Amino acid sequence: MKKKKLALHWKIIIGLVLGVLFGLLSSSMGWNDFVLDWIKPVGTVFVNLLKLIAMPLVVASLIVGVSSLSDVSKLSRLGGKTIGIYLATTVIAITIGLVTVNVLQPGSYLSTQKRDELKSRYATEAASKSEKAEMVTEQGPLQPLVDMVPDNLFKALGDNTNMLQVVFFAVFFGIALILLPREKTTHVRGFFEGVNEIILKLVDLIMGMAPYGVFALLASLIAEFAGNNPADAIELLQALSMYSLTVIIGLGAMIFIIYPLIFKLFTKFKYARFFKGIAPAQMLAFSTSSSSATLPVTMERVEDHLGVSDEVSSFVLPLGATINMDGTSLYQAVATVFIAQAFGTDLSLTQQLTIVLTATLASIGSAGVPGAGMVMLVIVLESVGLDTAGIALVVAVDRILDMVRTVVNVTGDATVAVVVASSEGQLRDVTEEE
Ligand code: ASP
């Protein structure tokens, strides 16, 4: 009889837990240099491998996906539906964030003394975030549109943060393929289909390394966070525990209430099965804090384990990794109100509604890379007239919250992929194949 192998998500969980334990041990034993020299590189190589295949995968799968649509009108329907649902889930996420932070009032738990201490300790970091965000706010209203259209394909392909430009090119290219007679494009289609298959195989191979990669990422993250003074890190965590808890409760509500509800209302798919299928992608999101780096795995899981067709997943997921960030938008709403509470500023209802609007835009504008959400938080703070130096209050725990909000970002994208696929009749039953 064939021995049953341990499922991938269990292996990753083991890597994750051991990584945390080893990180804690090493910071209490003073082994941090060893961890940074010998263990961190394994995590970096793992993330680099994922990033390496993200762009080629987006190009190949989108071209194959779009060109397999029968006509252009189907594409615009798919596009409209996807963007509409993305916006709706983002607004729901922000609302949940606002309700949670207004009910729990985490700002009132931060003493004035601790607040001022945090403010002066992280002043430089807060200023550098504001500077980065300044460049965005100085742009004209149509700049995001201009930024979407690359003037040089290879330049766009050469920078992982240009995902949206590459998506644009691939869709454009795919449209031309739809419009041409099939016999003229047989070889090109065949080529991209082949590349697509090969890259999905690469994802499989890279995932074999995932448990070790995740171990290394977590161990080095903790070693870096705690440094050689774990007591200081614990004190910081304690001071910001109510704020962190508020963000985590809000994010938890998305994963355990809102997405299951969406599944119940709009699909026949069991949420438990979805959760099992997407778990490895969630764990990678947690360990890498990057939806873009997780994208290849999200695509592989959604296509091969949840049964979403290539057509839908190749369009919905790359777009989602760049524009749909439910977790980030929820976090931005909570952080803004928390900062206001800590400074004793009351936000009116109109100001809270402004947060809904700006956090939606700010999360769309955040790239799927670590820490991007905090830079864009500056814009939300400015929109309600708060001092951007307030970012200093939340910097210390940002990396940890980034891990959790990225899980929500990726889960949100995958949820929408399943909903769109089910509404388009593009969901195949994979229970037999598993
Ligand atoms: N790290 C997040 C992501 O990649 C973005 C953010 O909130 O900073 O999805």
Structural write-up:
The structure is a single chain. The protein has a single domain, classed as Proton glutamate symport protein. Helices cover 79% and strands 0% of the residues. It starts with 7 loop residues before the first helix and ends in an 11-residue tail after the last helix. It has 20 helices and no strands. The chain is mainly α and 434 residues long. It is globular. α10 (210-226) crosses α13 and α12 packs parallel to α20. The chain has helices spanning 8-29, 32-67, 72-104, 112-121, 123-137, 143-148, 153-157, 163-179, 186-208, 210-226, 230-239, 241-266, 271-288, 291-305, 310-323, 326-342, 349-365, 372-383, 392-395, 398-423. The model has no long low-confidence stretch (mean pLDDT 90). The structure holds aspartic acid.
**Major pleated sheet:** none
Q: Within the CATH hierarchy, at the fold level, what is the topology?
A: Proton glutamate symport protein
**Fraction of residues in β-strands:** under 5%
CATH first level: which class? Mainly Alpha
Number of DSSP E strands: 0
